[in-house]
Specification:
Blueprint: H1 3-23, H2 27-47
Helix pairs in contact: 1-2
């Protein structure tokens, strides 16, 4: 399992927790988990090369 897969699993876990907290009407905890997931997505995006998207440059 490479680093990207691990990061995606953490993002998925955070999103599952967002759903759980929203089902329990705990908006503050849901927002915290959503922020954590977005932070991981941003970090993952920053580590990718521009050509990793499959789009050509130029």
């Amino acid at each position: 399992m490479d680093n990207i897969e691990i990061e995606l699993k953490f993002i998925h876990l955070n999103l599952l927790l967002v759903e759980k907290h929203l089902n329990n009407n705990d908006v503050v905890l849901a927002a915290n988990r959503l922020q954590a997931a977005l932070k991981l997505l941003k970090e993952l995006q920053d580590t990718k090369k521009p050509t990793d998207t499959g789009m050509s440059i130029g």
